[in-house]
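User: Teach me something about this protein's shape.
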Amino acid sequence: MDNYVNLIKLSVGSESVDTLMAWQDSYRQRFADGLPRHVTRMWPKREAEILNGGSIYWVIKGVIQCRQRILRLDEVIGDDGIRRCAIVLDPKLHRTQNALKRPFQGWRYLKPKDTPADLPKNREQDDALPDDLNRALAEIGVL
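Assistant: First, the predicted structure itself:
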């Protein structure tokens, strides 16, 4: 039995892993610790499992393409007075094997057995495939 759980989230507005990285690099400058974070309305009930080694898997253009290790969950109170959860992330993005994912709202739990594997170190810097080819290869299980 796994003793941790991951999250999965759509990276709305990202065109690629590189644009996700660029956005996070600019956004994280706002915080004293310099760490990227994703602020969400809901606090995960499985916090202990997430913090026991979980990552957030990012879906970009309908395909899981990368993940980041989750470091901690911070409470954030918005300008509207509502309590939110800041998912604080390791700045390093790990590219993964591509896996198709249908659209969904918010974040979801993702069991370790259902996660795509990280790309080998020698493939992390490979040029990204065009979106249509990337999706077609993922559909037939090649990527």
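Now, about its shape. The longest strand covers residues 63-77. The helical segments are 17-27, 47-50, 131-139. If you'd like, I can walk through any region in more detail.
User: That's plenty for now, thanks!
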